Records
---
Amino acid sequence: MKDLIEFYVTELIKLRRTFAYWLTVLGAAIIPAVIVITYVYNWKLFVPLANVNPWDELYARAFNGLILFMPLYLILMIGLCFQIEHKANAWKQILVLPVSRAVVFFGKYLAVLTMAAAFLILSFFFTYTAGQIIGMYKAQLNFLGFNPNFFTLLDFSINVSISILAIVAIHFWLGFRVKNLVSTLGVGLAGIALAVLMNGKGGLADFFPYAYPIMLLNYVPAPDKGIFEGFQWVSLVYFIVFSMLAFLRFRKSFIA
Amino acid sequence: MNTVVSATSLSFGYVPQVKTVNSISLDIGSGQIYGFLGPNGAGKTTTIRLLLGLLSPHAGSVALFGQPVSRKSWQLFSRIGAMIETPSLYEHLTAVENLEIGRRIRKLDPGMCSHVLEIVGLTASARIKVREFSLGMKQRLGLAVALLGKPELLILDEPTNGLDPHGIIQVRELLQTLNQDYGTTILMSSHILAEVEKVATHIGIISKGQFVFQGTMQALQSLSFQDSTLLLQTNDNGKAALVLKDHYQVEANTAQTISVKASSKAQTAQICRLLCDAGLDVYHLAATANDLENIFLKMVNR
């Protein structure tokens, strides 16, 4: 366990000052920034009715932006994380360190998942900051009179996290197989384009991983529904299968 | 003497038809500096990768410190420092951050990074990003990464690549110090004999995936006398030729010099003794031995 923690820390050190790091921080700020501009220029459209929480609409807009942007972010971020090793020609050096291949694999996987979680948390934080700024700019929008609905944030976080797991696992597996960043980006962009064409739930889309985040568009929490929807269970299956494939590939591979 | 590196009949090819490494066997004892020589493309790096378990041999086996090398033998690497081909460095990080990665994984004291930076003479550049480094500085930092944890076995693939003459001398002195003071066993590859001959105790020369010479440095040096020619000048070259022709092949006999074939230091001494016993004055005696570079080039068919 100590090996895994140390390796995980070194993975985070490697991400310092990288494009993946700045993409996570600045990428998370893009949607809240657009929301601030939209609210400031069209504030009259957003004045809430009495006793209506304005944060619900603000976060609903942020969720939609996040759902569309996050797959792109993940594809690019995972590709960049693997590029750090490929560019430094570092696999051969990593594999002659006194750690098992399982530690290397899970250390890197944890670092990728940490970046995805950081992106999500930062997005929520920047959206909250955006609400506060808008509230200070126009008191009529009533952001300072209410608080965001914590349950909605938590529920969305869990649902979006499950929905993106398939994409994370597929691109993590691709990271070991394909050295060229452009190729992995190409696969991801083609997947997203096809997902948009599939236009929502049902049919083939339920088995197409890139479509899962899009299925959460216009998200409304429904406490009475089951734990997860069907496509989310499929996402979990994809995650397990591709994670295993990635691990087997990495464990067996000899780096030429 | 304990065997630190042992390889038996190693064979490997990136494509099945072509064997990059063909039935290579080698043993490196504790405390040796093994110079692994060969021209570019001879199979040096592939052999090193096989020794470190980065490639799986098609035939043969490798043992380090008496334990067979496999994917599961990662604990062995706490005793080994390696630099394979170009140093693997993260250019967006500083020198000390690059070392910090290895230090944490090897669970070493925080002071170890500055210690190895001092050894390779990069203390002043510790906080500079590696992308600002020259090729020589990168090479030295790669060496510092390999030195983390005071390894018992150091495997260095062309460690002086890109270094200026001063840097080459520094690396040579460093390797000698590590070997003499800490007993570190060193395997270093190179395609330049002159670079290796000054430090190595043992030499292996590889060509087209096969060893063409393996032995001590002395054994290689003794080869330089094979088929060498002695140039002689005496007070009577005609008489000298007569004295020597019963024992040696006299190649040329002029008024100025005589050329005689000799194949060892002992024969040179005997020639001198024969001439003196015959009452001749020897003014000049020079062996035009093959230099090691020529021997190396002959061995690798260049």
---
Amino acid sequence: MMEKNVNVNIPAIPQEKFQFVQREERIHDERLKTKSISYFGDAWIRFRSNKSAVVAFSLILVLLLFAIIVPEVSDYTVSFRDGYYKTVLPRNPLFKNAGFWDGGQRSKQSEAGYQYLRSIGQESGVPAIMKEYDSFVDATGATFHNLRVDTYAQVGYTYQNLSAAEYQALMDYQDANNVQIIYPLSATQNKNFVRGNDGANFWYKLQDETQGSTGAPVLDENGDFIPNYLTSDDPQKAGYTSRMRIAGDGENGVWYTYAQKNQTGYKVRVNYAEYFYYKNGFTPGFLFGSNQHGQDIFTCLAVGARLSFLLAISVASINFIIGAVYGSVEGYYGGAVDMIMERISDVLADVPFMVVATLFQLHLADKVGVVPSLLFAFVLTGWVGTAARVRTQFYRFKGHEYVLAARTLGASDRRLIFKHIFPNSLGTIVTSAVMTIPGVIFSESMLSYLHIINLDASSLTSIGTMLSNGQGYLSTYPHIIMFPAIFIAILEISFNLFGNGLRDALNPSLRGADN
Amino acid sequence: MTKYIIKRILLMFLTLFIITTMCFVLIKLLPLPAVREMGRDINLVLAKREKMGYNRPIMVQYFLYVKNILVDWDWGVGEQLYEGLGIWDIMMQKLPYTVTVNLYSILLSIPLGIGLGIYAALKKNKWQDALISTLVMVFISVPSYVYAFLVQYFLCFKLGWFPLQAASLSQAGSLFSTKMFVSMIPAVLSLSFGVIAGFTRYTRAELSEVLTGDYMLLARTKGLTKAQAISRHALRNAMVVILPMIMGEFIGILGGSLIIENIFGIPGIGNLYINSINVRDYNFFMALTIFYTLIGLVSGIVIDVSYGLIDPRIRMGSKK
């Protein structure tokens, strides 16, 4: 309510006190002092504050680097197989005396087994027994030893059949590098002993030399082994011209025999660790151990991870593109176009993935290869989800005023779709593309685990193949299955955390929607 | 609602028909596995194939295939697997294993998952919630076969509580004997971790959203205790989303898990499917393809329809 006749006593202000605020200057808004933040810049700030997502992202980068770098620098390849270093345990040279990760395995050995392992150490100078815990006598009077056995050194010696040229080369190498690789043949030439690479490790006198001998030694009065090498009076028997000879050779004019001539060349007895170095140029050492084929698990894992990453990233990006285009067209035009396209994608979405993958493998694997046909299978139905998301976004935004305004101004359909409406759905589909990655990795490993995709013929491997390799050795050599299983678990957790972080960052309104 | 259901079912059959046709044609385009000679007369096999119409045009074969199923319920016989035995009989033999294992699994998972979810939602933003959410994240992400290996190694091998492989019917006597049950526990556990985590996550998300609703405040204001308000108002509303999920799980028990069946040697449908692929028995493969497609389609319908039945606010069949 206004009062009438208000006599406000305003003191008279002299005119000279008034002045113009501005006269020459033009009025304008103050410039923004801060830098404007783009959508992705904003998302990045939100993403950074999410600790678990950042950790997950760094882990993914580490695993990605592992997958890229390791196969390039590793001594081993997937096709590398070694028949003697099978199922050896993980060994890291840095952990030599740590008591773990040193290639050692705790095992209970009978007396004969204990002597057998001891003899390998004595002959080669590399002890096969890392630690003796204790020994006990059981009810039947048999002695048992609890030992930590070096799974590498216990390989010991093997027989190799070499051609004349290979034999000569090996002897030259011995002389040039001053190493003893060829050792004298054992006098017991029986095969199929219970232990020791066809008896190659029995350089000492046995109590029982028949087949099936346990390797129990005859010991001298000091408890030492009695050498039982094949001997002759000819120091260069079977063409052994190398100057490398083991201690005790040539005493009393009796010379050890280092080789035996057979139809194809020479049979020699070699120290396998040294022979391995001679053949391959590096010392045997498997960071994650080796599997039952003698493959290096570390390298296989990196190659398998490479396949997983490659497949997952290609599938995610292809699905992103197809889904975006398909969903845009559906959502923008609507009506009959939408209905027909929806039905098509409905049908595709309802085909079980296993069936698609199997049919593609059966039809295409021989023509375009295993991996491309797997990629096709993933792409055939994978984009449906992305398309549905884009379509929903289009339905939400296509009626907005700014779109009508743009249309009135004469913008073409294409411009409306890609310039005006599509960017609204970008956050959703980037998230959904990233979220498909763990699923692809899982499906791929499952398919190869079940042998529906078969990579045996190629120089590739996959995590699923490694898992199925290890399945039969779960109780005896759990390391074969453990490393790929841990790897895929970390990978899946990281991608899920990363995806969640990305979703929260790109779609702030959905923050924590299903978490 | 009835109209909507009928429409969905008709549409389902159309989809099923399209998928079946595509798969049938694609399978028939594959070269037939060579006739194994050992102990069999080649001419006999070839004659059988001729009689079954293998040499006629694919569309004629397809017509015969559909006709046999619809008229005589004849799904064909095994060629490489279970030679000469009816496919339907074999599938019905295998199905109980899959259903039993999965039934145990969801009977374990649903109460546990929902219980944990409710607990986490009530303790929102406290350490219990953080712990459960972290575990849920881990258990949802880690593939089921990793649990299978862990269970197999620690519980079956190291501790020796359970056998490494599921018992066969002849060993256990009956599908519901104690021995069978014990031998199935490892598989049930491996299957359950992921499902429990899934239910926990959804229950927590739904319930914590519902708990912030105005009507919850009203319920408390009018004098209900917290427990009353939660059980009568919050949980009921949260169930709108969770119940359809449970329905979906129940349909899904028919399908089972290929990889878990494989690891634990459960002679179920999943194992049959893998075997049929590995030995190229296309009759089994075709029948199982239809089976799996149908399960997927039916569970989709059941989930959608149950939304409408549970929550009258969700009108079905209305224009989107």
